[in-house]
Amino acid sequence: MLALMSVFLLPREASCRLSGEGELRYVNFEATDSSGHLSSHSLTQRYSVLYDASGRLVNGRLGRYDVALGYEFLTFDTGIKSSAAPAESFGESKGHLFYKGEVLLDPKEIPFRLNIFSRDMNRSSFSKDSRDNQLFLVPSIAGGSATDRRALDMDDERI
Distance between CA atoms of 151 and 133, rounded to whole angstroms? Predict the structure, then answer.
């Protein structure tokens, strides 16, 4: 019985897609004044891949489905050198799994409709801190910070 049911639930029409993204940024800053020389750099990278598929269940008579699964990798490396202070560098790498699943069960023969879904499709991004004189970008994953918001400003003060 279960084998027979699984044959009816298999999609006859379906579509799928595989997509990817990449982002790479490099910033270099150098300044010299009466107090000395300041040199800094920052390299940020973001890569993602996503597979999604959709289709109809039993030629649309039972409903439809739409699913996606992906992964995103985010990293940054930052360094600063000053003639007045020792060189300092820090970096961080984070990964984020994103997914989407939706199944609509809507049999045409009976008055029943059920929509089941779950998703986390938040993408990572690099954003600047709201403080003035910010030198480096701080990565943000799913609305939060990927680090403990360590960044350097012009006065070499940690936040």
Answer: 11
